[in-house]
Every structure is written in structure tokens, then in C-alpha cells.
Amino acid sequence: MDIKIKKSDIIAVAVREDQYPPEGPVEIAFAGRSNVGKSSLLNLLTGRRKLAKISGSPGKTRTINFYSINDDELRIVDLPGYGYAKVSKSESEKWGQMMENYLINRQTLVKVVQLVDIRHKPTNQDVQMYEFLKYYGLDGIVVATKADKISRNQIQKAKKIIRETLDMAPEDQIFQVSSLKKTGHEPLIEALFSLCDKDRNE
Ligand SMILES: Nc1nc2c(ncn2[C@@H]2O[C@H](COP(=O)(O)OP(=O)(O)OP(=O)(O)O)[C@@H](O)[C@H]2O)c(=O)[nH]1
Ligand SMILES: [Mg+2]
Predict the structure, then answer these.
(1) Cβ distance 76 to 38 under 8 Å?
(2) To bridge 8 with a disulfide, which of 15, 46, 104, 115 should be the other Cys (CB 3.0-4.6 Å)?
(3) Predicted TM-score (pTM) of this structure
(4) Can you give the residue ranges of every domain in the chain?
(5) Helices 124-135 and 152-166, packing angle to 10 deg
(6) From the CA of 201, how far away is ligand 1's center (Å)?
């Protein structure tokens, strides 16, 4: 298996199931709080600065965006973030339905990478999200983002707090990345490609 991302294309933008692309190769989705760096991580992994739109203010990604990697060897799905205070209650309910429908029903979805900010203890919503992923067997990979924001010797401690707060299993993997400094992506890319032949219920 090739572990380089040589090609990446956006293939669908969806708010409803009928807008999803037909099921094909395995899909790996990125979940996490608004502004945690999901879209930036996609750009880092693909080496394309402008593939996904990023923003300094939360609530940038509002749709489920499907990206084909290496002509559909696998797909990465960038999700809208949660915990964005400015949305109305009805908007946040719509968001929940849109996310649940994709996460629960998509048969080719094999893993959801949970992103958390390396500087902070995961929020209650992060914990809830990770519990949800555990329930559906989609957990196991966590990415601590913005690693450039803390010093090297704080990294292990920060990762320990994340592990404990999310109640991660010993075999669960945690990667630290910096999209700003472009570090940490290589082991993550390997982990994602190693999921390529997996089935959802394995
Ligand atoms: N210093 C630093 N900033 C980062 C890093 N990753 C992302 N950011 C910044 O964080 C902000 C949010 O990044 P996005 O990638 O848009 O975050 P998102 O999780 O996709 O947000 P939503 O689409 O709102 O859910 C932007 O200003 C990024 O430049 C990082 O590794 N280091
Ligand atoms: Mg985004």
C-alpha cells in the first residue's frame, strides 16, 4: 500500500443523504470542536494549502465535505465542528441530525478521527463525542492539534490529560500535529492508510 497522498479532490458537499457520493472506498471522518483545526489538518495531510477553506473564526465548515484521496484509495470527510456558540437552537438540531445520519448510517465509514486542541483539557462535548464514537465502534484515533502552541516538554503531559479525560483505551492512538509548522502528519497518514481494507463492523 502506498502511504503517500499524491492526489486529492473534493467529490461532494452534502447537508442531506441524497447529496452523499455513492459508497465506494473506506471513509475516515474528522470530528471536533469548531476551530480546532479539522480543515487545516486535511490541507496538511494532502499538502494543499487551499483544498478546504479555513477560518480564524469558528463555524467555517457547515457542510459534510467528501474528499477522494489518490483516486479513491480512500476518502477523508471533513465535518462541521460542534460547540459553536453563535448558532440558533434549530440550527444546532439540524446540525445534530445531519451529523448523526452520516455517522450512524454510512456503511463505508470505518473511523472518525477525534481532534482536540493540545492546549486544553477536552471539553464535555469532546468527551460526549468520543463516547458516541465508542458506542458505534468508530473511535481509536485522536489528534491533538496546534502542537506549535505549547513547548516540547509540555506535550507528553498534555497528551496524558487528553487520554485520561477522553478515557481512551490503551491501544487507542494519539498523534500530535501542527498544521502551522507542518509537523506530525506522516505517522497519521500511515495510520489512515492502514484502515483501507477495513469494514465498518470489524
Ligand atoms: N497555531 C496553529 N493554528 C492552527 C493550527 N491548525 C489550525 N489552526 C488555526 O485554527 C483556526 C481554525 O482552523 P480550521 O481548520 O478552519 O478549523 P475547523 O476545525 O475546520 O473549524 P470549523 O470548520 O469551524 O469546524 C484557523 O485560524 C487556523 O489557521 C495549528 O496547527 N497551529
Ligand atoms: Mg472546518
Answers:
(1) no
(2) 46
(3) 0.95
(4) 8-193
(5) 60
(6) 31
Q: 3-class DSSP state for residue 197?
A: coil
- Report the pocket of ligand 1 as residue ranges, CB < 6 Å: 32, 34-40, 54-56, 58-61, 80-81, 145-146, 148-149, 178-180
Q: Which three cell numbers stand for residue 199?
A: 469494514
Mutation pick for ligand 1 pocket among 30, 179, 181, 185 (CB with most ligand atoms within 8 Å): 179
Ligand 1 atom with least separation from CA of 79: 25
The three cell numbers of residue 83 are 460547540
Q: Whose CA is nearest to atom 9 of ligand 1?
A: 37
d(CA 193, CA 43): 17
Between the CA of 22 and the centroid of ligand 1 the distance, in Å, is 29
Mind listing the pLDDT tens digit of every residue in the chain (202 residues)?
Answer: 557 899 999 999 999 999 999 999 999 999 999 999 999 999 999 999 999 999 988 888 889 999 999 999 999 999 999 887 677 788 888 888 999 999 999 999 999 999 999 999 999 999 999 999 999 999 999 999 999 999 999 999 999 999 999 999 999 999 999 999 999 999 999 999 999 988 887 7
